[in-house]
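pls read this protein.

:::
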Amino acid sequence: MIDLDEDDLRQMCTESSFDKGERYFEEGRVRIKEATTTRVKAVVSGTNDYQVEIELDEEFSGECDCPYDWDGLCKHIVATFLAVIRDDVEIEPLMNKSSSELQDTKNLLKLTDADALRSFLLFEMERRPDLFNRFKAIFGKEGEGRSLDDYKAEVESLYDDVEHHGCVPYGEDIDFSSLSDLAELYIQKGDFLEAAKIYQALSEVIAEKMDEVDDSDGNYGGEFTDSLEAFTDCIFKAGLDANGRRPYIKYLFDKYQQGDPDYFQSDYCEALDKLCREESDRRYWKELLEPHMPGELPGDQDCWHHHGAMMLISMKLDLHLKLGEKDDFYGLIEKYYRTSDALCLRYARQLLADGAKAKAREVAEEGVAIFEDHLTKELRDFLSGIYKDSDPKKYRDTLQSLFLQSGDWQYYGPLKKSSKPEEWQERLGKLLAHFAENRSTDWSGRSKLIDIYLKEKMYDQALTEVLARRSLSTLRSYQNDLAYRYPEQYFNVYQELIIPFADKGTGRKHYQEVVSYLKQMKSMEGYEGAVSEIVGQLRVEHRRKPAFIDEMKGL
């Protein structure tokens, strides 16, 4: 058996994943499909049936096709590992059988005539191109792989299998592992440029096909990012000199410039940044960039070209800093910072980092004056840090503006703490007036108003706002804060709303929602009997709705 124990397994996942995985194992949700001494494949039943594969070789690891994207192993992998650790009766016979079959195969190979084995391999490789490709990757000479177009054709053939009328339907996720596994063979062999060619083919075809894919879950975007990252890693590991890296730097920059599709441009920019690690690389990148730099910045009305120009400016600013060209950085950003809140903030931050605090404040204040309020939050946030020690009045004014602008409670506490009692009452009045003004058209404004009242222990005012909303969901949201203080008023409004709400819809989902509100009402101490009367009335009025009657059984 494996050397992994449960204490080791706990270190590989969160406590929650372990507990859920243990429950899955104990409930018999793990079905072992294959088991060898180095690998186990299983199906684990959860929301769906998930395919799990765990490695038991030198390093323990696992893969699962569930959407889990948090720390450590998912619960399905944990459940499979627990099946291997605890369920010797099922696992060991499978492993022993696999080991026996492997030994039989080895013995058979020793007895097989070499010419007959070659004939067998040739026949199988003619039938299975993937086997030929793997054979060539392992035994061929370095640099003798296929052309980029050949690899692209293979990727395109994978799309042919799932396309319907020229479109890849939602949920049809192509398995690109035949190409990525082949690339891994070349990496193990040390032929990094051939592996890079495969990943280049993958990234190019995925990008070219995006208009044909219904990909609202982002699966293909993730595959593109992974392929491009792997491409860049391979180029870097190939150990090319500066001249050898240049064609790849140009390739990535050209792809960035083409912007097809434009939402992959940031991936190409990150790949360039990863590949250009030496000064000569960055100077070449800057040389490629120079002819594309904008003269006059397109206006905001031409948002497409404006955004593209801003990205080029930001790229050049990054290169100036990485090359230690501070004067050039400041010369370029001085020219454009009034056209963009992001550039204005970047200018101010760099000035502060370089010790020019007064100039940084001046630039940020200019930005707050120039740009519309919805663009100035980060600039105001930056200024609050500068004002905190140097200008307390402006610090408080800025915190107040930030809270009004964003509604973020991180500004409320410091604003109250830094204000004297009389000043705080004045500021509080302005905050309440602002959110009261917006409550009729903006629910978040009413919610914020209620939350402020509660924070300031102004319970009468909070109750008035909650009851005025005439909403069961609002009553439920604030029940813990207010119902025990004003039980009769609170319950009366619940009672007024619940029966009309029950009458206005049908379907089990609606009935479940009605019951959830009734349970909230029943949780109010002293009103259990009143709720029972309401339930009785609903049972009579809705006696011909068996699903509703069924949902109310627990009340």
User: Anything to note?
Assistant: Residues 226 and 551 are 48 Å apart (CA to CA). The mean pLDDT is 91. The radius of gyration is 33 Å. Strands lie at 30-35, 39-45, 49-55, 61-64.
